[in-house]
Structures are given as C-alpha cells and as structure tokens.
Amino acid sequence: MTDSFVQSSLEAVEAAAEPAAGKAAAPLTARQKAVYSTGDLAEAVISVALAQYLLFYLTAVVGLSGSLAGTALALTLVVDALADPLIGYVSDNTRSRWGRRHPFMLGAAIPLALSIGLLFSIPKIESTPLLFAYVFGVLLLLRFSYSFFALPYIALGAELSRDYTERSVLQVYRNFFNISGNLLTVVLGFGLFMSGPGGLHDRAAYAPFGWACGGVVLLTALLSGFGTMSMRHRMYTVAPPETSAAARLFGELRDVFRNHSFIVLLVTIVVFWVAQGTAINLGVYTYTYFWKVGADVIQTVLVSGTIGLFTGIPVCAVLLGRLEKKNICTGAIVIVCALLFTPPLLGIGGFLPPGGSALTVALCTFAFLTSVALTNAFVSFNSMMVDAADEHELLFGVRREGLYFAALSFSGKAALGLGALIAGFALDFVIGFPGGLAANPGAAVDSGTIVRLGLIAGPGTAFISALSAFAMSRYRVSRSELHRIQGELVRRNGSAAA
Predict the structure, then answer these.
(1) Distances 475 to 181, 261, 264, 465 between C-alpha atoms, Å
(2) CA-to-CA distance for 20 and 439, rounded, in angstroms?
C-alpha cells in the first residue's frame, strides 16, 4: 500500500467530516489522531497473532489436542472477560496526575509484550497437564495485560471528540493503523519467519515471530500512551464519589444494561464474533487442507484482504456522508455473510479450480471484497458505540465510557472464546482431524474430513453471522437523534454549571 494511496484515503475521509456546531473542543489535528491510533496497531498485532496462528501452532506444531487448545483459549477469554467490567470501572473512577486512562495503558505495555513472546516460545513439555498449564498461564497474563491496555485506550478515544462525524473520522484512523498491524503480522509470519522449507510446521520459526510481535507491541503501546498525554485536557472531569464502590459498580452495570442501544450493539457483537472466532481459528486449517495452498499463497490472500481493508476506508468515507451508520453496518455484515457462504460451496461443487494461479486469484478476490465490507462494519459499529455512550449520559447523568466499553468487551471476548472453543472441539469431534501433523506434515487427510472443514468454516459461520445483521437493524440512534441528545446535554450541563 503506497503512501499516496493512504494519504488520499485519509483526505477523502476528512473531506466527509464537516465541522458541527457547538463542539466542546477544537477539532483534533491529523497528528493527534495518528498518535492516538498507533495503539490500534499494537491491538491488531496481538489479535492477528492469536487468531491466525495460535490454534494451528498449539495443535499441529506443539501437539496439544484441539479440544484442550480450544478450552485454554475459551477459558482465559472468559476469565478475562469477567474482569473487564471491573477494569473499566476502575479506569472510569481513577484520579491521578496522569489522568484516568494513561496509567493503565503505560503499565500494561511491558507485560503485554512479554506474554506474546512467551506464548510462541513454548518449550518441549512431554506432560500434557503441564503443557496445558503453561499455555493457560501465559494466555491469562496476555489477556489481562491486553484488557488493561485496550479498555482505557478505547475509552480515551471516546472522550477525544464530541462531534458526530469527527468520531467516525477517528475510527477511520484507528482502522487504518489496525489494518497496518494486520498486514505487518501477516508478513512477519507467512512472509518471513514461516517462509522456510518447514513452513507453518517449523516449530523453530514461531519463537522469533512471537518476540518480533512483542517488540512491535511494546513500541506502539508506549507511543500511543506517552503521545496522548498532552491531550488530557480533552478528557471529562470525574466528580468525587458519594457512595461505596460496590454500590456504584452494580448500579452502573445495571444502568448500562438498561440502555436499548447498548443491548442492540451487545447482541450484534456477540453473535458476529462467535461466527468470526470460529472461522478465523479454522483459517490456517482451511487454507492448508481445504484449499491445499502453501504459506506463500496464504500470505498473498491475506495481503489481498489487507488491501481490501485499506480500500474500505474511502468507500466508508463516501457512505458516511450519505447513509446512517446503522445501515452501513447492517449492509456490510450481510455482504460478509454472503462471502463466507459462497467459496467453500463453489469449491465442493467443483466450480473453482483445484489449484494454481486461478484459485489464488479467486481466493484473493473473495478476501478483498470481504475486507472492504469488514472495514465499513467496524468503522460504523465503533462510531455507533461512542454515540450510544452519549445517550447513556443523557439517560443516567454520568459518563461511563470505560465501563461501557468494558461490558461490550466482556461480551465480545466471551463470544470469541466460544468461537475458539467451537473450532477446537469441531476439529476433534465433528471434522475429525488427525493428530501428529507437525511430525508428518505430508500425511493425507480423507475427503470427508476436508468437506466437513469447509462446510463449518464457510456456510456454518455465515448462518450465525446473519443473525447479527438482524440484531443491528434494531439500533435507533440516528444522526438527527444524536444531535438532539448532544443538544440536551449542552443545555443540562450549562444549567448545572450556572
């Protein structure tokens, strides 16, 4: 992706952002948006490393069974998710000279980088219980570190701007850096460390990959944390508490789940990530055994998907100027469903070539189109989440971005954990995948197993994803409704100040 394309994409989005009347602060500069959004690059490196590589590494390379690997992934996500509301609540109510968010972001950077390195450097452990304990312990450290960075980071973004369109622009910046982290992690894995003769089955390739990812995470997390210290004046002021912490936590959690907009967003993200978690965790298996392509082709397909994510930025810029965010998100999810459903059925039916450049072109095209749709879904969804936080203040009289995003993160992580669990158990008990693939990577896999893999990774996940599109159709905070909400807040806050 050339610099000129990136620049033109961001300029297109900026052109769609017209200043709104009555903004609480001056518009964010391009530099401020970029510095803040480097945190998404760290987030993307962690997410892609875990989603694309980890299940295959644990099962085919390290030798853990699919069900045990899926259980470790799911349990650590669920345990971490249970802690998310508390982390968000503490972040919301922290008062320090560094602000509410920055102490957590900066403190989490080093353990986050260490844990990703350790996770892909698993020593040879013969005992299955000890191996499971190692994986579980390191994963738990990674999950907690990730939450202590990501939740305050996302909540910080919700406070940087009050403007309807500028919030979408900020989400585009975040998405740009997230895509960059996605591309970097794909290239580091498939293009560099796993490009040797052993390919994805080479155990020695994973340790340097993990530590390289850790270095990138440390650098970008610190850059986002220290780089946004000068923007603390844009944050909301937290009033001193009047009741006990326990009473406030449970009361505020209750209020979060009384907001109709939040419930719609919650159901949407849970259903969507159950489906995507299943598909992503089966991704390397699907490319390697269903499509029968090597690491070089997998990298090409994933890079095509990354180009699609970039291409989605100017597309989203145009759509945001013409359509409601809800409609953009719903339509994008429907397109993703169709593109998940179609390719495996075409492959099983013999309508796609069994290999060669024609198959590569077809897979790249599907990946590109899926990613264009995903960019539009993610940008519009995240921007709606920030708008719903304003609605929460109008309804309940408090700003609770950290708790708000923590509750959503809790559900998203639980859904991803369920997706990983489904993928792991499906490998063992539904698909019936053979073990010992690292020792014998050329071993034949029977046709029935391959067909079941394609059906679960494609049409199966598409049917689940379709339910999230229906849920999103119930969202009701439009552009005009947000202007009304913010006008009410201005009048209320002005009266309170007087």
Answers:
(1) 30, 6, 6, 17
(2) 61
Whether residue 111 contacts residue 171, with contact meaning beta carbons closer than 8 Å, is answered with no
**Cβ pair 287, 483 in contact under 8 A:** no
| Rg (the chain; Cα; Å) | 22
Residue 444 falls inside a structural domain: yes
Q: What's residue 23's pLDDT?
A: 41
* Residue-range definition of the domain harbouring residue 136: 37-232+245-497
Q: Which two tokens stand for residue 208?
A: 């340097």
Q: What is the pTM of this model?
A: 0.77
Enclosing H/E stretch for 255: helix 245-256
User: What is the predicted pLDDT for the residue at 277?
Assistant: 87
Q: Kindly give, in sequence order, each residue whose CB lies less than 8 Å from that of residue 310, ignoring residues fewer than 6 positions away.
A: 1, 5, 6, 9, 176, 179, 375
Query: Are 52 and 185 spatial neighbours (Cβ–Cβ below 8 Å)?
Result: yes
Gap between the terminal Cα atoms of the chain: 52
Residue 480 domain-assigned (yes or no)? yes
Q: Which residues, in sequence order, are CB contacts of 8 under 8 Å at separation 6+?
A: 314
CA distance 354 to 348: 10
| Cα 337 from Cα 466, distance rounded (Å) | 6
The CATH number of residue 280's host domain is 1.20.1250.20
The tally of domains found in the chain comes to 1
Round to whole Å and give the CA distance between 309 and 319. 15
Is residue 11 in a domain? no
Low-confidence ranges of the chain (pLDDT < 70): 1-25, 164, 235-249, 401-413, 435-443, 495-498
Cα 423 versus chain centre, distance: 18
